[in-house]
Amino acid sequence: MDHPILRDKAYALIKQRILELQFKPGERLREDSIADEISMSRTPVREAINQLATEGLVVNVPRKGLFCASVSREEFLDFLRIREALETIAVQCCVERITEAEIDRLAAILDDYETALTAGDLKTASALDTHFHKSIAECSRNRKLIRFISEIEDFMRLARSKERPDLGPAEKALSIAQHRAILRCIRERDEVAAADAIRENIRGMRKKLGL
To answer: Is the pTM of this model over 0.85?
Structure first.
């Protein structure tokens, strides 16, 4: 297998483990151990970890080693502010450019999200929440915006891991309703209402996290 393909595979595997908290925030990452676990040489693993470091998911501490990022309360607040601004732009562009087929795909994601959240499968629900917001960004057709939001959404997925595992029926229903409102506004091509709906959803996350 070509080296770039191995690097990309290592990147995807390590990133998935970070986002699913198989590697905990603040946990040290050892290239040799990870290489053994995923049956690769250390070179593609090292390059994958370096790429994750540029994205902020891994931190290189001089004379100590490489660690999974541990995001402070202040940093999460900053991410939420940035996310609100970027996703407002993204959903406005999405309303202008999305196709009916893409709207149907967003609806399918939300159906799966509602199923997972109602069943209490927060891990799957979190991944689908991220997928929904990234998909809206992709429909903006703005490559820079897509990249920025993708990186922010990865950190938001880590933030969602801090939500209480015992969300009540009312909280679940509110989250589902907020996402359905975003989709409805997109379907109706209402740019202003879509921006308001996505801001309400993001601010709701801030409340759930107590930020």
So the answer is: no
- Domain residue extents for the chain: 3-68, 73-208
207 or 203, greater pLDDT:
203
Q: Is CATH 1.10.10.10 the right assignment for the domain spanning 3-68?
A: yes
Architecture of the domain spanning 73-208 = Up-down Bundle (1.20)
Whole-number Å distance between alpha carbons of 84 and 200: 9
Cα 151 to chain centroid distance, Å, stands at 7
Contacting residues for 102 by C-beta, under 8 A, at least 6 apart: 135, 139
d(CA 51, CA 11): 8
Give CA–CA dist 80/112, Å, rounded.
24
Count CB neighbours of 178 within 10 A: 17
Report the C-alpha gap between 37 and 50 in whole angstroms.
18
Question: What is the helix, strand, coil percentage profile of the chain, to 5?
Answer: 75, 5, 20
